[in-house]
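seq:
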Amino acid sequence: MQRFTVSVRFLILIALGVTAGLAVGCSTPTAPPTAPTLSSLVISGPAQPAVVGQPMQLTATAILSNGTTRDVTTQAAWRSPDIGVATVTATGVLTFLTDNCVYITATYQQLSADRDFGTADFPSPCYQYDASRP
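struct:
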């Protein structure tokens, strides 16, 4: 008789959802993993100063919430604030037209990043030539 009583208690516990680890192979369902989100954007380029008239490739790198990175150079929107000093193409190729220093901006999704680049006569950081920049 006792065996039947234990089985009934077990069934009652299962019906109530309180198995206290007695049910083998049962687990709590988990949510599917979420896709990593965009955390920040970084612009990189050659370490040496630019040479007037010589194109240099810049790179836009997205840093995701899980720590991984993604090259988004061709998906980013590139901008040079002074096209009389330097131009930047849609693929991130920067070309100086004159000796100077310029801040280049890349925008990907909702994030923007900027970085200064200069020629040998105007090495970065640009703020030493532009009092309006921090």
